[in-house]
Specification:
It is a single chain. This protein is of the alpha/beta class and 330 residues long. The protein has 2 domains: 180 residues, Isopropylmalate Dehydrogenase (3-Layer(aba) Sandwich); 131 residues, Isopropylmalate Dehydrogenase. It contains 11 helices and 12 strands. The strands form 2 sheets. A 10-stranded mixed beta sheet has the order 2-1-3-12-11-4-5-10-8-9, sandwiched between helices. It has a two-stranded antiparallel sheet with strand order 6-7. Helix 6 links the parallel strand 8 and strand 9. Helix 5 crosses helix 6. The longest helix is centred in the middle third of the chain and has 17 residues. The radius of gyration is 20 Å and the shape is globular. The relative contact order is 0.17. It binds 1,4-dihydronicotinamide adenine dinucleotide.
Length: 330
């Protein structure tokens, strides 16, 4: 039996993790979940939101499924998510955004994959207080990280029969940092003759995404633009409740939804487990369990096709009712 680390998170995390574990169990696949708590709730007892035992567990099991955890705003602890990505060198953040059955949105032909660089840019955490009225953050871009994320995007395109990889920057203004990212893309792109290339500025991309999203295929972006644009593309397919994600490195992979811990609906049995479930389906494919991944995906899509969904998608079903309907199909 395969052991997988499960970080069940806080906020709505435990509710949606519980749903996903039950759905996977109902599919017939047996997984030994190594459950690891993290986030706000463990700070008091362990002095950190990301105890070493969580990292040790992922290092041992190689793969983790992660529900969202709260990052307190302002002073205090660094984001668990940012730390996880840095510690395990999960350099690629992958966010496929494709329309789902019966989920009504403004567009019905969205099929975009956002590949976001996950380790540097303004998220490197290099900040200083210059004086009481001035703060400074460093935007760190290296050739090594830029080339490997561009290569990841092109390799993904080749493996998944995608046609184009478009690089997104603001290189007209940040000529050195974004210029280096663009230059790295151009260099890597030379190795992929069969994939079409495109270059676009991030502001123009945002406008075009809300007008003609069908024009885009695979996007590769530095960290900050990737963070913002992937929320935009999540909105194109029905919002955060259905947006999946994965953080992938050479040795480890952590699958998690795009959304956060949604404290506003915590404990109300309202959260949509779809984003975490889609992330889990990708995880099953990643570990080679295609049969179960397809079985669960079919049960989810059939359920949505019948108009059964949670309130974020305009439905009337609670988390547990929606989960129950998927389980019935399995
Ligand atoms: P959020 O994604 O938690 O919530 C934004 C809005 O979307 C809320 O109205 C929420 O109710 C709704 N929403 C999110 N997921 C939903 C779901 N599955 N079903 C139904 N509705 C859903 O973003 P917010 O409020 O900015 O962040 C809350 C906390 O989560 C913060 O501490 C933030 O740092 C953290 N966060 C954690 C992430 C992670 O663990 N990967 C990612 C993003 C934020």
């Amino acid at each position: 039996m395969r052991t997988i680390t499960l970080i069940n998170g806080d906020g709505i995390g435990p509710e949606i993790s519980d749903a996903v574990v039950k759905i996977i169990e109902a599919s017939g696949l047996k997984i030994d979940w190594d459950i690891q708590t993290a986030g706000e709730d463990v700070i008091a007892a362990e002095g950190t939101p990301l105890p070493k035992r969580v990292l040790d567990s992922i290092r041992e099991n190689k793969v983790a499924l992660k529900a969202p955890v709260t990052t307190p705003i302002g002073k205090g602890f660094r984001s668990v998510n940012v730390q996880l990505r840095k510690e395990l060198d999960l350099y690629a953040n992958l966010r496929p955004c494709k329309n789902l059955p019966s989920v009504k949105t403004r567009f019905d032909n969205v099929d975009i994959v956002v590949v976001r660089e996950n380790t540097e840019d303004l998220y490197a955490g290099i900040e200083r207080q210059v004086d009481s009225d001035t703060a400074e953050s460093i935007k760190l871009i290296t050739r090594k990280a830029s080339e490997r994320i561009c290569r990841f995007a092109f390799d993904y395109a080749v493996k998944n029969n995608r046609k184009e990889v478009c690089v997104v920057t603001k290189a007209n203004i940040m000529k050195l940092s974004d210029g280096l990212f663009l230059d790295s893309y151009r260099k890597v792109a030379e190795d992929y003759r069969d994939i079409q290339k495109k270059e676009i500025l991030v502001d123009n991309l945002c406008m075009q995404l809300v007008q003609n999203p069908e024009k885009f295929d695979v996007l590769v972006l530095p960290n900050l633009y990737g963070d913002i644009v992937s929320d935009l593309t999540a909105g194109l397919i029905g919002g955060l409740g259905v947006a999946q994600g994965a953080n992938i490195g050479l040795d480890y992979a952590v699958f998690e939804p795009v959304h956060g811990s949604a404290p506003d609906i915590k404990g109300q049995n309202k959260a949509n487990p779809t984003a975490l479930l889609l992330s889990a389906i990708e995880m099953l494919k990643y570990i080679g369990e295609y049969k179960y991944a397809e079985r669960i995906e079919k049960a989810l899509f059939d359920t949505l096709r019948e108009g059964i969904c949670t309130s974020d998608l305009g439905g009337t079903y609670s988390t547990t009712e929606f989960t129950g309907k998927i389980i019935e199909k399995l």
